[in-house]
Design brief:
Elements: H1 4-7, H2 23-26, H3 38-44, H4 61-68, H5 80-96, E1 101-107, H6 129-134, H7 140-158, E2 164-170, H8 173-181, H9 183-192, H10 194-219, E3 223-229, H11 242-262, E4 267-270, H12 276-285, E5 289-291, H13 300-307, E6 312-317, H14 319-324, H15 327-344, E7 348-352, H16 362-381
Helix pairs in contact: 5-7, 7-10, 8-9, 8-10, 9-10, 10-11, 11-12, 15-16
Length: about 375
């Protein structure tokens, strides 16, 4: 016979993943701080998670050091044991700040021979067809995994219970083309040699398919959500004509997103700027969720109104608010906006509209995190 005692969870029950998804657990004090990566999966699939998650595209390591008073960044350059200790600090920050996932990626631009044009350091290594033909494309996967593999392994070793990573192979199709050619020189290439311009994007697509295929074989269990960051807009429009993006860039994304979906993972796209002209194209290509917003371009509510019925949306708190408001002002605005966005959108996670660079005031950032916890407590009490 089943008694009432049999139905009360034991301490061991409370450590099981299934218990964290039950209504009973939602009434326990630990619920508001216990991580569960499935919340960000729900957000990415545009489902309402059982608790309001927080999300960041990137939190600068120097910011983490400033916030915690602990220096650990140099450990990333050490041996394998040092690297695990680095990620213990790195993941520990996300855990302490009540995230459900740890954002991490290894960027393609780190390993591109002659790269740097993306940051405006110099023109890219490919300026003409001869450059394109002699570029060491076939060597790039080996270079990437030589840089990435030990970091992903160390991340896995340091991942806290209940959490998984969010990210993967960093940089999108357009950013890689900028690093290889340069923004201004891409415009020249499109005019002077449109066949080379098209071949460049196909080759970048081939590279991304190769890297993502191997990444998903090795690390799909570590990553709950796959993500690509690829800034394609500025304040008034896309950085190149929407028709160019539809012709050359979107088809390459479709190839990568198909791989991610075949691996059973949702795909989150981070892209800054005014990209409304290509959003329908990217949704048609298969993105499941979108991050990045700037209020001067459009308030976050506009994104929810236009796309919230089709994809998950994350962020909402403009970085300008974190930098310019006093902590109480940040807290009050984040509570008001977070409550509103949570009620308007199905898949929503609260966070900055971009990322947390080292110049964001620590008190402003912590006020945003406190706002998320206050909203959880509000829902918990309801």
């Amino acid at each position: 016979m089943v008694t009432l005692r049999d139905m009360v969870p034991t301490p061991d029950d409370r450590r099981t993943p299934d218990f964290r998804r039950t209504p009973d657990f939602r009434r326990t004090p630990d619920f508001r701080r216990t991580p569960d990566f499935r919340r960000m999966v729900d957000v990415a699939y545009n489902r309402r998670p059982d608790r309001l998650p927080v999300y960041e595209h990137l939190i600068n390591v120097a910011f983490m050091e400033k916030a915690t008073g602990t220096q650990f960044g140099d450990l990333a350059g050490g041996d394998d044991a040092d690297l695990v200790r680095f990620f213990e600090h790195y993941c520990g920050f996300y855990h302490a700040m009540t995230y459900d996932t740890v954002s991490f990626e290894v960027c393609i631009t780190e390993i591109l021979p002659g790269g740097g044009a993306l940051l405006g350091e110099h023109p890219g290594p490919i300026q003409n067809r001869a450059d394109f033909e002699r570029y060491p494309w076939d060597e790039l996967p080996t270079l990437f995994w030589a840089a990435a593999d030990r970091r992903f392994r160390a991340l896995a070793a340091a991942m806290p219970a209940g959490m998984k990573a969010l990210g993967g192979v960093g940089n999108g199709v357009f950013e890689v083309s900028e690093d290889l050619v340069g923004y201004e020189h891409l415009a020249y290439m499109a005019h002077d040699d449109p066949e080379l311009y098209a071949a460049l994007y196909r080759r970048i697509g081939d590279l991304m398919v190769t890297l993502w295929t191997e990444f998903l074989k090795r690390y799909s269990d570590l990553f709950a959500v796959c993500r690509v960051g690829d800034d394609q807009g500025y304040k008034v429009s896309t950085l190149v004509a929407p028709r160019v993006i539809r012709t050359h860039i979107v088809p390459q994304y479709r190839r990568v997103i198909e791989l991610v979906h075949q691996a059973g993972r949702p795909f989150l796209w981070h892209s800054c700027g005014n990209i409304f002209a290509i959003m329908d194209d990217m949704i048609d290509a298969g993105i499941d969720a979108k991050h990045s917003n700037e209020d001067v371009i459009a308030p976050f509510g506009t994104w929810i109104e236009r796309f919230g019925d089709r994809i998950g949306l994350v962020g909402g708190i403009d970085v300008d608010i974190l930098c310019r408001e006093d902590p109480q002002g940040v807290f009050e605005r984040a509570v008001e906006m977070g409550r509103r966005f949570r009620s308007q959108a199905r898949g929503y996670a609260l966070g900055s509209g971009n990322s947390i660079p080292d110049y964001v005031p620590v008190d402003g950032y912590l006020a945003m995190i406190r706002a998320a916890e206050a909203l959880r407590a509000e829902e918990h009490a309801a």
